[in-house]
Write a structure and sequence with these properties.
Layout: H1 2-19, H2 26-29, E1 38-41, H3 59-64, E2 69-77, E3 80-84, E4 92-95, H4 96-109, E5 115-121, H5 127-137, H6 158-163, E6 168-172, E7 184-186, H7 187-190, E8 191-193, E9 220-224, E10 228-232, E11 235-238, H8 243-246, H9 249-263, E12 269-272, H10 280-287
Parallel strand pairs: 1-2, 1-12, 2-5, 5-6, 6-7, 8-9, 9-12
Antiparallel strand pairs: 2-3, 3-4, 10-11
Helix pairs in contact: 4-5, 9-10
The protein binds 2-acetamido-2-deoxy-beta-D-glucopyranose.
Amino acid sequence: MRTFAALALSLAFASVAFALNCNGHTELCDRKYSNVTFLGTHNSPFVGVLPADNQLETVTQQLSGGIRYLTAQTHDKDGAIELCHTSCILLDVGLLQDYLKDIKTWMDGNPNEVVTLLLTNQDAIDINKFADAFKAVGLDAYAYAPGADLAMNDWPTLGTMVSNKKRLVVFMDYHADTSKVPWILDEFKYYFETPFDTTDENFAQCTLDRPQGASADGRMYIVNHFLDIEIFPGVLIPNLADAGKTNSMTSILAQTDLCYTQYKRTPNVVLLDFASIGDEMKAQDDLNNLG
Ligand SMILES: *[C@@H]1O[C@H](CO)[C@@H](O)[C@H](O)[C@H]1NC(C)=O
């Protein structure tokens, strides 16, 4: 009888401990989404070693490796939403919907993980078409809709997002419209970003680049910590050769320290190219004050 009770008790504890684990750490369950730092993959779908590629691992591998913040560039190709780099002639890795399906599959199998997807929409594709792509694979079911614009302190904790099963946060740089799709959020309402496409290997700035002229106050922020190299005058490509150095603790923390000095809070997101190289998960733990 006593053995049974002990067993039941330990099972109860085991399930509580399981339920309280968010993104790999119990400590993160009590932290507001807006108070967590995520190391993310810039242009997550462009996988390979060609000049238009930004990552070496597939999105599923990125997620399995610990990345919880994904960015993806979308373009209109003959009425379909495709993942293209600058233009679909330069690099086209296929339908947004197929990429979303991979994320859905991964999230189904990992119920304690909060994932963010930041989409670009330079071609001003109708927001309802984006919603259709999510719905086609069932990923909309996980999408978090705040209901009204959130102040930075109003974000739910990761624990709440996990227990409510609303643990996918979707942002879009331009042309979001929450009156039509309440769970695709306007990136620049919530964030500011530092400059991107830098060729300064020291990342010796933490300047507010976009939205231009906006205030840093009340906004989370994204640090673009990926390095380009100029191969011809005006032609920049991701710097794969130096990725080990760029993605090292030393390089990441040097820039985030600068940011902390400037804004008195840690960045919410640090975006990397070739994120499978380097110390990104260690840097993430460090920035979140996790041992
Ligand atoms: C989270 O809050 C702590 C305490 O105020 C702060 O030091 C840290 O910079 C915050 N992190 C983020 C990502 O906002």
